[in-house]
Amino acid sequence: MERLYRIRLCLAALFLTAGLLVSAASFAKPSLNLFVAASLADVVTEIAGVFEVETGISLTIVPAATSTLARQIAAGAPADVFLSADMEWVDWLVGRNFGKPGDIQVFAGNGLVVVAVLNSTAADSLPDVFDRANSSRIAIADPDHVPAGRYARQVLEADGRWRQIAGRIVPAANVRSALRYVETGQTDFGIVYATDAAAGTVRIVGQLADPDPPVRYVALPLGNRPEAQQFIRFLNGPAGTRIFCSHAFRLPQGRAC
User: Fold this and answer.
1) 176 and 226 inside one domain
2) Is residue 251 part of a domain?
3) pLDDT class for 3, splitting at 50, 70, 90?
4) Residues 223, 104 share a domain
5) Contact at 8 Å (CB) between 48 and 59?
6) The predicted structure's pLDDT at residue 27
7) Where does residue 182 rank: exposed (0-12), middle (13-18), buried (19+ CB within 10 A)?
8) pLDDT above 70: residue 219
9) Domain limits at 221?
């Protein structure tokens, strides 16, 4: 009798434990891993805070160069949403069966500016920066891999300036690193996104022409999680739009600040 009683107690304890585990799992907060282009880190962090409060979905933000993130995703990194600084790396992933073409969404844009050390008087105009006699170094994101650098090279090749400054280029891991080179005086000039310049401790010398196609930020959900789609809709919704505008990002055609 005592043995039977003990067995019943053990079974009751097992069922209780199992019930608690199921209950805990049912109340666990859903979460998403966002792989985010470096130039989006600040604005997406702000948007994520609002999204978490409104939805209860926990977000983990992983910022880096778009090229680095794309390669990490292709290698199996656990990303739920990829926020890229260009379409090329998104197409590269989709071509490897990461994400679906129909799920791609453009959600913001940007411009390119030339910046200088804050208190310097090295140049007052773009011609001064690109003058053949000027030997000052220019930081840009790696133009062989990183969207910001590729955009910059495209614009400068189109107007014939790339060859005359190629020997002065200091490639950086991402656009935020290029900005830091200028902020810390490691280079005299840099070419960065307008939004990074506005948030940085630098002097804006002038704005470059837009590349063709223009700078576009692209969202790609990875997998079939509805929360990922929900977050991307939020980026394009009223709250996301307001925050992008407050950080001076451009909006896709058809939306306005």
Assistant:
1) no
2) no
3) very low
4) yes
5) yes
6) 53
7) buried
8) yes
9) 27-109+217-246
Q: Rounded to whole angstroms, how far apart are CA atoms 247 and 243?
A: 6
Q: Given strand 58-64, what is the order of strands in its sheet?
A: 58-64, 31-37, 81-84, 216-221, 105-109
Separation of alpha carbons 113 and 248, rounded Å: 13
Tell me the sheet residues that pair with 36: 63, 83
The two structure tokens encoding residue 217? 């930020």
Q: How confident is the model at residue 257 (pLDDT cuts 50, 70, 90)?
A: confident
Residue carrying structure tokens 């451009």: 250
Element (DSSP H or E) covering residue 1: none
Cβ–Cβ under 8 Å, residues 196 and 175 = yes
**Weakest-pLDDT range from 17-21, 145-149, 165-169, 174-178:** 17-21
What confidence tens digit (pLDDT) does each residue in 77-103 have?
999 999 999 999 999 999 999 999 999
Alpha helices by DSSP H, listed for the chain, are 2-27, 41-55, 66-74, 87-94, 126-130, 147-158, 162-165, 175-183, 194-199, 226-236, 238-246
Q: Do 237 and 151 have their domain in common?
A: no
Q: What is the CATH number of the domain that holds 69?
A: 3.40.190.10
How many angstroms separate the CA atoms of 248 and 215, rounded?
14
pLDDT at 9: 39
Question: What is the sign of the dihedral through the CA atoms of 221, 226, 227 and 231?
Answer: positive
